[in-house]
Amino acid sequence: MIKIAKMTVVVLVIAALTGAVLAAEESWKNDTMLVSLRDENATVCRAAEPDKVLFQNKDAQLAIEWAMANATTTVVTPGHYVTNDSIDAPRDGVTLIIDQGASIKVDPDANHKTNLTFRSSSSRGKYSQQLVPVVYVFNRNNVRVYNFGDLQPSNWNHPDQELPKPELYKDRSLRFIKEEITGRNGQTFPIVFDGRNEELTCGVQGGVMVNTGTAHNFVLGIDCEALEVPLVCPSADRSNDAVLCLEGCHNGKVGWVVNIAHVDEDGKKGDTGEVLDLNSSNTSTSVDFALGENTRLELIDSNASQLTIDEIVAVNKSNGKEEYINKLLIESGGSGQRWTYRDRRHSPASIGKQTKLEDVVDVKRTINLPNLPDALPRFDVTATIEITLEDGSKKTYAKTVNIDITK
C-alpha cells in the first residue's frame, strides 16, 4: 500500500513537471505577435490566437510598433508593407523577425520625422540629406533584429519641402546639430542601431543583428556596446558600398560578413564595394570571417579602429571586363567619421588566415531557413557559400546561427 502511494506521488510529480514544461514551451505563443496583410491593412494577432485581430492600420509602421510594444517577439509574415517613417524599437529586450517573402518600404512621399543625418564635411557640405532607417533601434538595449526579407530602398527629392525643426524630430540626437537643414532629399538605410547621446558614450547595450535578406545598402551600428552581428550574408541587388558598417562601437562581435557580387540581367558579375566598413572610432572589434568578391576596393576598411579578424577570403571571378584581385585590408589612423562623436583609438589590426582565390568560375550563395512561424520558438538559419574553381574542385564555407526567442 505504501509502495503504491509512493508510486502515485512520483507519477503526479512527473505529470506536474511535464505540464509545467509544456506550459513554459507554449507560453511564447502568448508573447509573440504575428503581423500580416489583410486587404489594405497590416494586422496584428498573437501566435496563440492567429485569427483574432488585436490591432490594424494601413501604416505598417504603426502596426509593427504596436506589436513590439505589446509582446517580446514580433514576426512580420510575407507580404509587401509600406510605412510612413522608421519602425522604432519601442522598448528594451524585444525581438523583430522579418520573414522571407516579407518586404518593407518607407513611403518616399511621406512626411518622415526620423533623420539619421551625418556630420557635415568638405566633400558633403552641410547636412544635405535626410537618412531614414527602415528599422531603427535608438538607445534601446538588448534588441534583436533578424531580417530574412527585403528592406526596400526609398529615395526622394522634394526641394520645396522643408524638413521639420530639430525639436520636432523623435529624439534622434539632433541636439548635436547647429546648422539648419533645408530641402527634403533623402534615402533609407535598412537596419540601424544608434546609441548616440550627449555623454558621448555607447547608448545601446547589447543587441543582435542578422541580415540575410536583400541588401540595398549596409546595415549600421553607431555607438553600441557589445553589439553582436552573427551573420550578414545578403543577396545583393546592386554593387553595395559595404554590407556592414560600424562606427563608434565598443566590444563589437562580428561573426560572418559576406559581400557577393550582383549578377545582372545578362548574367555578368558586377563589382562590389567593401565587405566591412569600420568607419571610425571602433574599439575592441572582433570578426570571425569575412568574404568578398569582385571589388576594386579593400575587403575591410578600418579607420581609427581596433580590429581582430580570424579569417579573410577574397574571391576573384571574371566580371566580363577584366580580372583582378582585391586588397584584404586598409587601415588609417583617422578619417571616415560621419556619425559618432566618440574618441578615436587606433591600433594595428590582428589578422589570422588569409586566402585569395583567383581561378574562380562560379560563386553560389544559399540560405537555409525553415518555415516561420511554424518553426518557432527555436530555429537555425544557415548561410553557405560554394565556390567552384577552374579545375572543377569546390570550396565551401558555411555558418549556422541558432535563434531561440524564449531566451
What does the secondary structure layout of this molecule look like, with pairings?
Layout: H1 2-30, E1 32-38, E2 41-46, E3 55-57, H2 60-70, E4 73-76, E5 79-83, E6 87-88, E7 95-98, E8 102-106, E9 130-138, E10 144-147, E11 150-151, E12 155-158, E13 184-194, E14 204-205, E15 208-211, E16 214-215, E17 219-222, E18 224-225, E19 228-232, E20 235-236, E21 244-247, E22 253-259, E23 276-280, E24 285-293, E25 298-303, E26 307-317, E27 327-332, E28 350-368, E29 378-389, E30 394-404
Parallel strand pairs: 1-4, 4-7, 5-8, 6-9, 7-10, 8-11, 9-13, 10-15, 13-17, 14-18, 15-19, 16-20, 17-21, 19-22, 21-23, 22-24, 23-25, 24-26, 25-27, 26-28
Antiparallel strand pairs: 1-2, 2-3, 12-13, 28-29, 29-30
Biggest sheet strand line-up = 3-2-1-4-7-10-15-19-22-24-26-28-29-30
CA distance, first residue to last residue: 44 Å
- Tell me the number of structural domains: 2
The number of helical segments is: 2
**Shape descriptor:** globular
